[in-house]
Every structure is written in C-alpha cells, then in structure tokens.
Design goal:
four-stranded parallel sheet, alpha+beta, binds zinc ion, 18% strand, single chain, OB fold (Dihydrolipoamide Acetyltransferase, E2P), 18 helices, 5 domains, DNA polymerase, domain 1
C-alpha cells in the first residue's frame, strides 16, 4: 500500500495495522460507529493479513484468498412514515408499488422511497399508507421496509390495492404467469418506451452518451422517438428545439448516436432488451450466431442447445422475433446502418488476413473451437506450436509452456479481453 501511494495511486488514509485479532475487532467496531464521519458510504471493512509468508500458508479457496476478507457491518435501521404508495412502470411493463417515505437519514444518505415489490409483499407485511415503519439498509444500496410498527397505528391508515389499469397508459394490467407481478402489455405505453430507450442507450448496451433521462422523457412525450429506430432518424434542427439542448450538445449527441452503430453484435442483442437476455446471454448468442438473420431464424431447440441458454431465455427470444413489430424494428435499424453481425471487416480485407495465432490456457467466454472459428472467420490461421512466425499467442487461464516460449521469442501475447476486442465483441 505504501509503494502504491508512492507511485501516485490514491490509497485510503484510514489504513491501520493491527497487532492481533482483538485489535482487528476493535478497529472494525470503531469504524462501525464512525462510518458516518467519512466523506463516502461504506458497508464494511476489508481485513488483510500483511505477512506474505502467511499468505502462502493460508492459501486460497476456489473463489478467494484466505488472507483477505470483507467484513460487512450489520444493517442500519431507522424509523419513518409511509406518506404515500405510488406506482412505477418499468421497461418490461412490470408495475411496481413504491412507498414514499418521510425522508430519514440512514447509513449516510437520505432515504425517501422504498420498493414494495408487489401486492403479495404488501399484504404479507400488512403495509398501509400512513404506517410507521422500520427501514433498513444493508449491503445493498436499496433500502427495504422491514416491518410495520403496529403499536403506532391510529386507525387513520389506509390499505393499498393495486389498480386494474396501467397508471401511465390506462391499458388493462395482466397478471404475470409465473410471478406475482402485474404487467402492462401495451408495447407503446410511454413508460415502457422511455425505459427501453434508456436501456438501449445505456453504457453496457449501445453506449449513447447524452441520451439521458430528461431528454428521453421529452423525446417520447413529443413523439419524436417511439422506438429504437427513431433514435437514428433524429436531426439537428429538431434536437436544438428541445428544452435545454444547445447546438453543441445536440451535435455531440448526434455524434454519439452515429458512433453507436458500430457497438458490435453482442451489445446490440443486449440493447434490444429481450426479456431474460442479459449481457452474458447476449455474448453467448453473438458468438453462436454470426448475423442477426441467423439469430432470427434460430428455433427454440437451436437456442436451448447452447450452453447456459435455458428454456426460459430460448422461449423469450423466439417470442421476441416472432412479433411483427420487432422484426420491422430490426429491418429499420439495419436500414439505419446499425451493425448487427459478428464479423468486423476492415475495408474489404479480413482483419486477421495472413496472421497466425496460437491458443493456450482456458478462456471464460470461448471454447478452443469457438476461438478458432472466430479467428478463421476473420481470415486468420491457428497453429498448435509457437514459433518466430507466430503473430499472436492468446493466453487464457493456466497457460502452458506455449506462453513461456512466446515470451522468449518476443511474440505478442494477448489476454481474453484483448482478444474479444480484436474479434469485435
Ligand atoms: Zn402502460
């Protein structure tokens, strides 16, 4: 830590060395009470053994070393009142009841709302508007209502019932088949459109910097954006007219929108917001199917046979592409020149033309065969031994002697992340 500090890294000034475990416990207790004085929130302490010889003796479990642990503080609690219960419509249409609380200080921040999840949860805890409740914030960022202080009831509290219609678009709400949630199934419900656009533009999806909450709100209200494809049709004169959008920020936004077209196949699949398809599933799909056309043609069985893709995800994907509007959306996005295939071609010439690769070690996201396919698809060649003619050695976990040889010969070694970048994922 001292060395890191000397090198210019920011190191916590609250680092302390303890002589024995009793002292460790005392330091933890001290910070548990003093945590509110820190300029940031903490939910626990990291304790490390500072003797390298002991590190070796203690070893590690599969997941983590035994000489470093994170000790979480017990959750803090506070008392507040439920002023109201409002409804929030998410991007998949799920309607969630949210308790509006009298603002209360808890673990270094002010808490003024807490999700109540669904009607069942409200009934189970018998939560009513006007109730005095105990709020808790543990390791998670989101506070929760632990229980109602029933002794404080005056008789003026009101029970809450989920409505039958969407609070935003007034469509009839349907019960979710598998869950206790209720859902608005109107695809053009403004709340869902806003939510899905924000997801599409988010950092881990298409990464459109500048397309934030306030702007999306206005674009959807003014019906300038009704789906993802509309984003790519936005023009400068239209943007400038929007409240708080200057010329400069409008131009920056249009730039970011243009750039997002090349975000890559995996990000694009994730950005579509298909139910149950997260970042990881999107990567698996991008790897298994070279193009959007192939993915759209995939049957339930094709999808379910993929590692880590279960029946729920497979069914969700099939349903998504069965829907006419979604197919039209893909066509429109294609027309807007959004890239939706795996291969990254560089001016007609294949990216890996004439390059020789050697694979060693285990990769997290590719099997050997998949990595080979990727390389060959981009015009490269995979050989089994390292020589001076090798251009790249792709080293995963536990690389073998090939890595040593590559180092000796000065062959460029790349890790899995770098490889994924090279293949355009
Ligand atoms: Zn709705």
């Amino acid at each position: 830590m001292k060395k890191l500090k000397a090198l210019g890294f920011k190191v916590t000034p609250f680092l302390e060395v303890a002589g024995d475990i009793e002292e460790v416990i005392a330091i933890c207790r001290k910070w548990q009470t003093k945590r509110g004085t820190l300029p940031y929130n903490i939910d626990g302490m990291v304790i490390k053994v500072n003797d390298f010889e002991l590190h070796r003796k203690m070893g590690a479990t599969i997941k983590s070393p035994r000489w470093a642990i994170a000790r979480k503080f017990p959750a803090e609690q506070a008392i507040s009142n439920i002023v109201d219960i409002i409804l929030s419509v998410g991007r998949t249409g799920t309607v969630t009841p949210i308790a509006i609380l009298e603002p209360v200080q808890l673990s270094g921040s002010v808490v003024s709302r807490s999700t109540l999840h669904n009607q069942d949860e409200i009934e189970r805890k018998d939560i009513r508007i006007g109730d005095t409740v105990i709020v808790e914030k543990g390791g998670e960022i989101i506070p929760k209502i632990v229980k109602v202080v029933t002794e404080k009831r005056t008789g003026k509290e009101r029970k809450f019932r989920m409505p039958g219609n969407c609070p935003v678009c007034n469509s009839k709400l349907l019960q979710d088949e598998d869950k206790v949630a209720v859902r608005c199934i109107n695809k053009s419900c403004p709340a869902q459109v806003k939510g899905s656009i924000l997801h599409f533009a988010s950092r881990s999806a298409m990464n459109i910097d500048g397309l934030g909450y306030m702007l999306v709100e206005q674009l959807v209200e003014k019906k300038l954006v009704r789906n993802f494809a509309d984003i790519y049709g936005l023009k400068l004169d239209v943007l400038i007219d929007i409240e708080r959008m200057g010329k400069k920020s409008s131009e920056n936004l249009l730039n970011a929108i243009e750039q997002s077209k090349g975000s890559g196949f995996a990000r694009f699949i994730y950005a579509l917001g298909i139910r149950h398809v997260g970042i990881r599933a999107a990567h698996i799909l991008a790897l298994a199917f070279c193009t959007m056309t192939d993915l759209m043609k995939a049957s339930f069985d094709d999808l379910e046979s993929l590692e880590e893709i279960g029946p729920v995800i497979a069914e969700s994907i099939v349903q998504f592409f069965k829907t006419k509007e979604n197919r039209k959306l893909i066509t429109d996005l294609k027309q807007a020149a959004v890239k939706m295939e795996r291969v990254k071609k560089s001016q007609g010439k294949m990216a890996f033309s004439g390059k020789t690769f050697v694979l060693t070690g285990k990769m997290e996201n590719f099997t050997r065969e998949e990595a080979r396919e990727c390389i060959e698809m981009l015009g490269g060649k995979v050989t089994s031994s390292v020589s001076k003619k090798t251009d790249f050695v792709i080293a995963g976990d536990d690389p073998g002697s090939k890595l040593d040889k590559a180092m000796k010969l000065g062959v460029r070694v790349v890790n899995e992340d770098e490889f994924r970048e090279m293949v355009g994922e």
